[in-house]
Structures are given as structure tokens and as C-alpha cells.
Write a structure and sequence with these properties.
- The complex is a heterodimer of chains A (111) and B (179).
- Chain A has 5 helices and 3 strands; from the N terminus they run ααβααββα.
- By secondary structure, chain A is an alpha+beta fold.
- Chain A has one domain: Orthogonal Bundle (Arc Repressor Mutant, subunit A), CATH 1.10.10.10.
- In chain A, a hairpin with a 5-residue loop joins strand 2 and strand 3.
- The longest helix of chain A is centred in the last third of the chain and has 25 residues.
- The radius of gyration of chain A is 16 Å and the shape is globular.
- Chain A starts with a helix and ends in a 6-residue tail after the last helix.
- Chain B is mostly helical.
- Chain B folds into 2 domains: 60 residues; 98 residues, no CATH class.
- Chain B has 8 helices and no strands.
- The longest helix of chain B is centred in the C-terminal third of the chain and has 31 residues.
- The radius of gyration of chain B is 20 Å and the shape is elongated.
- In chain B, 36% of the residues are buried.
- The mean pLDDT of chain B is 83.
- The interface between A and B is medium-sized, with 20 and 25 residues.
Amino acid sequence: MAIDIGAQLRKGIVEFCILALLRREATYGWKLSEELVERGLIASIGTLYPILGRLRAQGLVILSDQTSESGRPRKYYGLTPEGIRQLEEFTAQWAPFATTVSDLVGKGTIE
Amino acid sequence: MNPVTSNRAVRYLERLTAALADAPSDLREDVVSGVGEELAGLDEVSADARILELGDPALIASEALRGLPASATPPSRGRSGAYLSLTVALLVVGGYVLPGIGWIAALVLVGGSAVWTRREKTIAIAASVAVAVLGLALLVAFRGPELGVLALVCLLAVPFVGNVVIGIYLSLKWRAITV
């Protein structure tokens, strides 16, 4: 069976991308979904909600009722202090990890 | 949330809800309310454009289901028609047939079903407790030799009528998901 390499790479990474987007500002599901779909990190808004559910269950993300810029009431997702801490931990580990992987596989040549 | 007024949007949300029948109720609620926010307050033209962006509700549902961990409990509990019938029967007459126990069993069945959302369960259980308290309050208010019969009628009839209404509410919500 062929392995979907893109899907494998996204596993475990998308959660932190969502936390990173929420660090910029609290936002609602559709806006979050638009940005993630555009960047090719999720397939559709359907992919987003199970992840948000897990992040909420882990206490990394919190929901609140707010009014959007268009004046419509919406559910906004924001980071909790634990979410910020987890994201900082991930950020600290990501750069050396990415460098190591690039060193190993990123040359683009096969001998 | 503003109401969803466009007919196309209402039908779209119904299709999405039905496509998520196998999803845990909390996830279903999250997806449907999240998509509903996008369709709320739109006229038919704007709703059509947003529906086009959202895509096939079956695809959204399949993506949502695929995102569940493999260890997620299959949400089959409380999905059968027999479960619904038993729940509603116990809710309406259980308290009279098996005083106290039958009614409590009904509330446990409501709380244990994977079909109704957390909000729907909270509404049903809180309303059932409220009509029981109301029945008891009327019993206390009307106690005495002259009003004794009236008090007894209140104690029996108020929870009965209230629980019939709650049973209808639960049945309608159940059918929206499973039919």
C-alpha cells in the first residue's frame, strides 16, 4: 500500500500549527480552516474540528463566545497558558529537528 | 447565533447533521455549529456562494470521522429505536410504574446516549428535574384536607405532561440524526 507521505508529515504537526495561528489571535473555526486549507495543512473544515476537540480536551485551547468583525456572534478559539507553554516547547525543539532532517534528506541528490 | 434563514442553508445543515450520524455527539455539535455560524443570517444568494466554498457535506463528515483517534468509542450506544422508545417510556411513565427508580433510569439513559448532544441532554435532564420539582412544589402548596386531591393531581399530572413534551423533543432530535 502506498504511504501518503504528506499525511504522515502533517500528523502531530498540524496541532502545533493551529496553536501557532491562535497565538497570533483568537479566532473562529471557519477563519482557521480557511488559512489551514490554503496552506495545504488540512483537507477541509471537517478535518479541523476533531483536532480542535482534542486540543480542548488537553486544555491547550479554550472556547469563548465573541462578536466577529462583521458583527456576527461566533465561537472563538484561543490559547490557554498551557497551550502557550506547549507551543514554546515545540518551537524550541522544531528548529534543531528540522535542521537535522534537512541535513539528512534535504540535499536533493541520491547517490 | 443569528438564525439560519436560507432554505438551502437549512437543508445543507440537515444533510451535514445526517452525514455525521456516526460521529460522537460533541464532535457533531462542533462541526454543525461551526458551519452553521458561516451560514447564519445569509440570504439565498450569499448562502449558495458559501455552500459552494464549504463543499459536499458528506466530504466534511468523512474528513471529521477520519480525524477521530482509532481508539474512539464507536458511537453506537443509544442509537437504536428500542433505546429511544425505552428512554421516552421510562421518562413519561417510569416514575409511576417504578416510583423514583424508573424516572432516574430514564435520565441515565438520556445522559448515556451517544446520539443527543451534550446541550440536548442538559436541556432534557434539567427540564425533567424542573417539572418534578414543580410537581412537588404544587403538592406542598395545595396540601390540606380540602385541596388534597388537587395537590395529588398536580404531583401526577405536571411531571407527566412535562415529560411528554421532553420525550417529543428528544424524539425529534433523535430522528434528525438517525433517520
